[in-house]
Design goal:
It is built from 13 helices and 43 strands. With about 750 residues, it is α+β, with helices and mostly antiparallel strands. The chain is globular. The strands form ten sheets. Strands 1, 36, 37, 38, 39, 40, 41, 42 and 43 form a nine-stranded mixed beta sheet that branches.
Length: about 750
């Protein structure tokens, strides 16, 4: 019956769009559309100014300077007094240009000073910077410029791929606070000695299957707290580098990688007495969850008790544990339990100096802050209401106040818009610090008295202000972004669109991108850019001149991005839809949203819908054509986690549950490969350190055994989702062929086809 109603709704929508003709570009028009898609960065990339304000604090953190940019590469350096909000030039730009002209032997433009790596030093008295490959120092009082050492540039770190920690024993000597003792791990056991003495074994039963890896002294030097590691399965995952630089044989890369259901590393805590040699395990279960990092101990003010966090495997219980370091007695100070999951991706814990604890929980159905007494008794619910605390920016323990940002408090706004607030520890004195409608990104000053705020939407340029934290009052304007040149170049913002979800009452929010050469007399296929991971929400809310979805729209598509149920940053009930139900991916909400869009805009042809995504989005885009083939016709999936039993333990057990149950197989793309009806293109990165490539390979194997047609691209030598320009070209071509119904350009005959990876 549901299927028949869906077909009927498509017929009704098709009838309303019957007067429209399908957009069918000629080969010349299509080639121009590809060129336009590739040139958006060139067309729009240098036509927006002052999108951000980056403060650089000086003079005891009472002042800051920032750079203001303008059309034609002009630059101004502005100083702001945090207390009054007054602003002025950081220095006389004309005098600086004159001084630099003499030093560099070439005339300098005061509006385009070639300076970089600026630092205000000497308590605000001098400015150190680089220009023309030389270092200089400028004295503010005398306005003189002298040569100096070059200011070193920022260190650039190449991010290392995530590698599972094997918790080797820390063999360094750890001295007791009173200096009388030294303890260390020898690899299996704990050794202790007096200063200048010889080692004495405090433990003797350490083995590779249960070894002591870390020691920490009680603050009064009377006891040692030792952490023991019980290794789990530590099973490997394999990658093949088929085309190593310089040639030669393929390279096998192996590393441990825990999957859902594996036996994981666990930790227990022991108390050791260096005098009596007594060894005692604390009265508590081991830490055994997927996020069971070696516990971090925090000593309470009495110096006899320590606390540590314990997240149970299965993610349904988080506790703050307290141990008596004399007796080993352990109890839970805070015990947060959920019928579904405790969301670690939005966790917040703050330990006050007086041993009070501020904790974020969703136990009342919304993400809110709670204050607990040192004994674990709930003192106050600090925040309350049908809205979500998104993050804490400052805790002022002296004045017992918190600055935080939250979304959903302003009923007439997009519920995902962030605003900043100040509240007292007891929940009183709630003060809005960023009243302007829009999405806010702010930075608290180092002394906690002011807020540097940037407000924007996807269509409205950022506005920058300095506001007081005491009352939210405006201290001064820091300017507004200039997007006049961007608009002259033809830029158009995506359109926010809202429709009701599956329950008929909840608003589902998304964005619509249209081609810049849009013609309302034509109908256009729809493509959804999907990422449905429960760890966040993903529809952009603030301003950006360039977004990848616009480039895809240029080829003749209506491109949409939607946050369906199961994603984060709304109510707990909204989020819980994902629990043991990742295959849902919010599709009922997404489909209703697109139907509502097509009803309002008949040129959006939802009889031709495509979808693409990477990682969890790769899983979701394939699921779209497996579980909803009546709606989604074409999918491009990159590096998908196609079976939640074959991806990292923490992400999958958090949302799909533990122990591994039948829902894992029931919702697997691999198990359901035989349901494929539409067109599918799979991408897999050969050296994916995030989602093991065999997840895609096994989907391919299942599709072959089900005798299904599909396409696949394996990209050698790259990591997760790094198909590059070539992969982007293949994605575009696939949609052009299967949704527009025209052939993409014959790239092999092009003199300079797009899509070179530039790696060789």
């Amino acid at each position: 019956m549901t299927f028949l109603l869906h077909r009927l709704s498509l017929v009704v929508l098709a009838a309303s769009a019957a007067h429209l003709s399908n957009y069918k570009p000629s080969p010349a028009e299509l080639r121009e559309a590809y060129r336009r898609a590739d040139s958006l960065r060139l067309l729009y990339g240098n036509k927006s100014f002052n999108l951000t304000v980056t403060p650089h604090w000086y003079d005891g953190n009472h002042q800051f300077w920032y750079e203001s940019e303008g059309i034609g590469g002009t630059r101004k350096f502005i100083s702001v007094d945090e207390t009054t909000g007054a602003s002025k030039p950081l220095f006389d730009h004309e005098k600086m240009a004159s001084a630099l002209s003499s030093q560099l032997g070439a005339k300098q433009d005061a509006s385009k000073l070639p300076i970089s790596s600026m630092r205000v030093e000497d308590e605000g008295k001098t400015l150190h910077f680089n220009a023309g490959g030389k270092g200089f120092k400028f004295d503010f009082a005398t306005e003189t410029l002298t040569s100096a050492d070059l200011v070193p540039g920022p260190r650039r770190r190449t991010p290392e791929p995530w590698v599972q920690n094997l918790w080797p024993a820390d063999k360094r000597d750890v001295a007791s606070p009173d200096g009388a003792w030294i303890a260390h791990c020898d690899g299996l056991n704990v050794q202790v000695k007096t200063k200048g003495g010889t080692d004495v074994a405090l433990t003797t039963d350490g083995t590779p299957q249960a070894y002591f890896a870390k020691v920490e002294w009680r603050p009064d030097s009377k006891k040692i707290v030792a952490i023991r590691v019980i290794p789990g399965d530590r099973k490997p995952v394999y990658l093949i580098q088929s085309s190593p630089p310089g040639g030669g044989r393929a390279v096998l890369k192996t590393r441990p990688y825990d999957l859902p259901g594996d036996k994981l590393d666990s930790f227990d805590i022991w108390l050791l007495d260096p005098v009596t040699k007594e060894v005692k395990k604390i009265d508590a279960d081991p830490l055994d969850g997927p996020f069971a990092d070696m516990p971090t101990l925090r000593w309470t003010n009495d110096k006899q008790h320590f606390t540590y966090e314990k997240l149970d495997r299965g993610y349904q219980r988080w506790r703050l544990m307290e141990t008596d370091a004399e007796t080993g007695a352990t109890k839970a100070l805070i015990d947060d339990q959920a019928k579904t999951f405790v969301d670690t991706t939005s966790a917040y814990v703050h330990f006050c100096q007086n041993d009070e604890v501020i904790y974020r929980s969703e136990k009342d159905g919304w993400g809110q802050l709670y204050l607990y007494k040192p004994d674990g008794t709930l003192e106050d619910q600090i925040t309350k209401g049908p809205w979500v605390v998104r993050g804490v920016d400052r805790v002022d323990e002296k004045n017992r106040q918190i600055v935080f940002h939250a979304s959903g408090m302003n009923a007439r706004e997009d519920p995902y818009f962030n605003h900043y607030y100040r509240v007292n520890f007891d929940g009183s004195g709630m003060t809005a610090l960023t009243p302007a409608p829009g999405d806010h990104v702010a930075e608290v000053s180092p002394d906690g008295t002011a807020l540097i705020d940037t407000c924007s939407t996807v269509s409205e340029a950022p506005v920058h202000e300095l506001r007081r934290i005491s009352d939210g009052g405006l201290l001064g304007s820091l300017g507004k972004a200039d997007i006049s040149e961007l608009k002259k170049a033809g830029w158009k913002a995506p359109e926010p669109f809202v429709a009701k979800g599956r329950d008929g009452t909840t608003d589902i929010w998304g964005l619509i991108y249209r081609p810049s050469k849009f013609d309302t007399r034509k109908s256009y296929p729809v493509i959804e850019d999907i990422y449905a991971g429960p760890q966040d929400s993903f529809v952009p809310k603030n301003f950006a001149p360039i977004r990848g979805d616009q480039a895809l729209a240029e080829l003749g598509f209506i491109v949409v991005k939607i946050d369906g149920m199961g994603t984060r940053n709304r109510s707990r009930a909204f989020h819980d839809v994902c629990w043991k139900n990742l295959a849902d991916n919010g599709f009922p909400d997404r489909i209703l949203w697109m139907k509502a869009m097509a009803k309002k805009y008949p040129y959006a042809d939802i009889s031709r819908v495509g979808v693409f995504g990477t990682s969890a989005g790769g899983q979701a885009s394939t699921a779209a054509v497996l579980f909803h083939p009546e709606f989604y016709k074409v999918a491009v999936s990159s590096c998908g986690c196609h079976d939640n039993r074959m991806d990292k333990v923490w992400w999958n057990e958090q949302w799909m549950g533990y122990p591994v149950g039948p829902e894992y197989a029931e919702q697997s793309n691999i198990t359901n490969a035989g349901k494929l009806q539409g067109k599918l293109l799979l991408f897999v990165s050969e050296l994916d350190t995030n989602v093991p490539p065999e997840s895609t390979y096994r989907l391919v194997d299942a599709l072959i055994h089900a005798r299904k047609e599909f396409d696949m691209l394996v990209t050698p030598g790259v990591d997760h989702g790094q198909e590059g320009p070539f992969g982007e070209r293949k994605r575009r071509d696939f949609f052009v062929h299967n949704l527009l119904g025209v052939e993409p350009p014959e790239w092999n005959t092009e003199a300079d086809p797009p899509g070179g990876l530039g790696r060789r």
